[in-house]
Amino acid sequence: MRRRGADMEREMLRDFGYVSKVCEEWGMPLLAMVYGRGKDMNQYDPKIVAHCARLGAELGADIVKVPHTGDIESFAKAIEGCPIPVVIAGGPKMKTEREVLEMVYGAIKAGAKGLSVGRNIFQARDRIKMVKALSLIVHEEADVEAAIKILE
Q1: What pLDDT does 2 receive?
Q2: How many CB atoms lie within 10 A of CB 62?
Q3: Nearest one of 89, 91, 67 to 78, comparing CA atoms
Q4: Residue 114's beta-bridge partner residues?
Q5: How far apart are the two ends of the chain, measured CA to CA in Å?
Q6: 3-state secondary structure of 122
Q7: For residue 71, which of 40, 96, 45, 43 has the smallest C-alpha distance?
Q8: Which residues pair with 31 in a beta bridge?
Q9: Strand order in 114-116's β-sheet?
């Protein structure tokens, strides 16, 4: 049988379980970043994302961070079986700020509870305005057009 996943997957899952146990003992919430890794694996594949989200929940995370699958329908399907809040990773640097806003808007519409974005904020023309625009989408259910106005 062909092995899939990262070379250190067994150790990472063992460590995840240990950290989960300690967080529970301390009463500390656990955010797990779970991405599909390995040769010939597409970490954005909705089946892989669904598996990762569910794995995070089953190993004791309180919130799980996974890659966005690329569209509302596939992401909604990927996270529908996850019993804990899901946040999206920011992914690679996007060509436009609108693309970032559209990804986040789609993820929230699909059921994500938030985002964990780095470079697409840090490398924005105005980081503060970008955070405000994203916050508008996540916390006030604004659409992309309303968020774009903040960036202007």
Answers
A1: 47
A2: 16
A3: 67
A4: 87
A5: 54
A6: helix
A7: 45
A8: 63
A9: 31-33, 63-66, 86-89, 114-116
Helix or strand or coil: residue 112? coil
Each residue's pLDDT tens digit, 15-55: 988 999 999 999 999 999 999 877 777 889 999 999 999 99
Domains and CATH numbers, the chain: 9-151 (3.20.20.70)
Question: Residue 148 to residues 24, 90, 99, 105: CA-CA distances in angstroms?
Answer: 40, 18, 11, 12
Does position 114 have pLDDT exceeding 60, yes or no?
yes
Pull the structure tokens for residue 78: 């990927």
DSSP 42: -
In angstroms, rounded to a whole number, what is the distance separating the alpha carbons of residues 61 and 81?
A: 15
138 strand-pairing partners: none
Region of 67 (left: φ > 0; alpha: ψ -120 to 50; beta: rest) is: beta
Give the chain's radius of gyration (CA, Å): 16
Which segments of 1-152 are extended strands (E)? Answer: 31-33, 63-66, 86-89, 114-116
Which residue, chain included where needed, has tokens 């004791």?
60
